[in-house]
Amino acid sequence: MDFLPLFHNLKGRNVLLVGGGEVALRKGRLLADAGAALKVVAPEVDPQLTELALHSQGSVQLRGYQADDLQDICLVIAATDDEPLNAQISVQAQALGVPVNVVDAPKLCSVIFPAIVDRSPLIVAITSGGDAPVLARLIRAKIETWIPATYGQLAGLSKRFRARVKALFPNVQQRRVFWEDVFQGQIAESVFAGKLHEGERLLEEKIAGAAPRQLGEVYLVGAGPGDPDLLTFRALRLMQQADVVLYDRLVAPAIVELCRRDAERIYVGKRRAEHALPQDEINQRLVALAKEGKRVLRLKGGDPFIFGRGGEEIEELAAEGIPFQVVPGITAASGCAAYAGIPLTHRDHAQSVRFVTGHLKDGSCNLPWRDLVAPGQTLVFYMGLVGLPQICTQLIAHGRAAETPVALIEQGTTQQQRVYTGTLASLPELLAQQQVRAPTLVIVGEVVTLREKLAWFEGAQTRE
Ligand code: SAH
Q: Do residue 324 and residue 346 come from a single domain?
């Protein structure tokens, strides 16, 4: 080990920063965040750094560095572009035993700055000892995605309850099990979902020795339109901790693969007009599994609240008093539009966008056509493939121009994405000669013409 990581308490202590440019400002910000009093010395100092230093109860001296600047200093940072000066500062500081960091010169440093993941009071520091800073930054980015932004609040919770828990369990082993349970279970999830009060209440209950909860929890999670990269951090985390997963046809296999390996997986089908499991059976199944104490993941394509019947599922859970949370996902309209290069709104072409289902509850396609032909709006039809000829005919019959551009996006955002474009008049006929595969999304409006300029995804190539 070339460096020993130690965490430096700088609150109210003097740190000397030699240099007044952008690099010095970056270091200054970190030091000020850690509560240091910044003493800045440089012939010229960036005004933002001056403000930072004065705000930190420090000082700014507009002149060159002098050896006695090292008096009463607990750390010195050399951030100048004068190499001999940086070397001189390093030697003098080390002679006095003052820790020194010279920016971008690891050999002159006695201490180095790590890449930081800040979930205060939890802090993760990563270093490559100066050998591969980019690698350290990449690891940092990975860790950032694993650890929820509110993770630090768990530490606050632990701080507030620590003494009571200690009194309750004199035995270290028991305490460890207790806290592991808190940090990995429903209490932690409440905190991550922004429900700190609920987390505290559950912790109170747990401490009060209330009967251990028999109930599990249901996570209603939007998995996005297909590309696994479009999952949210929260979706991925819950996918990796659920005991059982219920998913349907819309969820791409590559996404189901990301669920915890040993989780039970239940396919609940759902294809247009051919439901592998009727909706109320899915609802009952969720309730039953949660009552067995399981953490149940209901994984849905796109966003659970956009044509996803998510509302019906949680109604049942709420009625049964089962805890649940809903995680939004990228809906097919956003995903397909972005990957096909079609902005859904545009100042010149569409001032609003409307998500419409092409398949009504009664199996018909009787839509409010008069509203749908209003100018300046983009229409996005979900479940619109079967009804497409009727949709196009009705829009024309109600006054939308027959030349209005239309795009049909097949298996949007996946490697199999295909885009067909035409007009209200031509597209149905074009599609009749193609083997189109579900799921598909239909976008109607002037914005479709922009894709020639904006398409970037390989599957964005057009078939006309
Ligand atoms: N909750 C989902 C929509 C469910 S309805 C969401 O927010 O996206 C199912 C319809 O969504 C399909 O019939 C299709 O119109 C659309 N859809 C979902 N994923 C799609 C994809 N990858 N490509 C094209 N259309 C998609």
A: no
